[in-house]
């Protein structure tokens, strides 16, 4: 028996990058895992195949989480397939950079709808299914705590909102035995921000350790919060950022 045997997790944006690493790590720790994807069906089903190859059950759910009903539908699909929900990981994200005066309404709406509204709606839908030991874990950003260069105002604003949400949820859900926590990754080697990208050396220069995260670095922390080690951690914002916010 492993740490999450018998538990069910839903990971939004789980087809690639950090979300993929989280989904696979939770499955490796014994959970059955549902994951949402926006468009990359082949990748999402590939992650499910890896989960199932490891002996756990998986489910890929196509969901445009910027819409008003998709988050609740993803929760409902997870419960319908697995009969329960114990762990919600709000990971799905998008990045629109640039000067604030140049941000389009479409970029603003997509960012806030995905990073804030969809997270709240997923939480709202999940709460009735989360019992004692339930976990809500959201993926924020080091930009919520420190903004070392220009061009990320919209993104950092949206991720900062999760700090207040997480603290509020800790108080609202603590009496139910449900924890809520926030993980703030720094620069992480993904397609969105590759470690060999144009600005990678600049980003490394802001860290204490001089290196990028791997997606697995973030997944390890999520797994700790999801498992027995996270039973008494709630309302916390935990940096996995190689020391950017040190």
UniProtKB/TrEMBL annotation:
InterPro entries: NAD(P)-bd_dom_sf, Sc_DH/Rdtase_CS, SDR_fam. PROSITE patterns: ADH_SHORT. SUPFAM superfamilies: NAD(P)-binding Rossmann-fold domains (SSF51735). Keywords: Oxidoreductase. It comes from the Bacteria. PANTHER family: OXIDOREDUCTASE, SHORT-CHAIN DEHYDROGENASE/REDUCTASE FAMILY (AFU_ORTHOLOGUE AFUA_5G02870), SHORT-CHAIN DEHYDROGENASE_REDUCTASE FAMILY PROTEIN. Belongs to the short-chain dehydrogenases/reductases (SDR) family. This is 3-oxoacyl-ACP reductase FabG. It comes from Actinocorallia libanotica.
């Amino acid at each position: 028996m492993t740490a999450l045997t018998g538990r069910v997790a839903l990971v939004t944006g789980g087809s690639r990058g950090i979300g993929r690493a989280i989904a696979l790590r939770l499955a490796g720790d014994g959970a059955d895992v549902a994951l949402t994807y926006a468009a990359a069906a082949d990748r999402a089903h590939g992650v499910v195949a890896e989960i199932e190859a490891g002996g756990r059950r998986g489910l890929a759910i196509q969901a445009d989480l910027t819409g008003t009903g998709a988050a609740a539908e993803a929760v409902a699909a997870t419960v319908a397939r697995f009969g329960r929900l114990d762990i919600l990981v709000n990971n799905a994200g998008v990045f629109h950079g640039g000067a604030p005066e140049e941000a389009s309404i479409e970029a603003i709406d997509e960012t806030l709808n995905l990073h804030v509204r969809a997270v709240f709606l997923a939480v709202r839908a999940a709460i009735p299914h989360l019992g004692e030991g339930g976990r809500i874990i959201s993926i924020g950003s080091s930009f919520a705590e420190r903004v070392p260069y220009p061009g990320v105002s919209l993104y950092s604003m949206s991720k900062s909102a999760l700090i207040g949400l997480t603290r509020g949820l800790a108080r609202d859900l603590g009496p139910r035995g449900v924890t809520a926590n926030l993980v703030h990754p720094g620069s992480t080697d993904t397609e969105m921000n590759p470690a060999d990208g144009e600005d990678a050396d600049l980003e490394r220069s802001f860290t204490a350790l001089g290196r990028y995260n791997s997606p697995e670095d973030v997944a390890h922390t999520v797994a700790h919060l999801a498992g027995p080690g996270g039973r008494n951690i709630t309302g916390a914002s935990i940096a996995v950022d190689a020391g950017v916010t040190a």
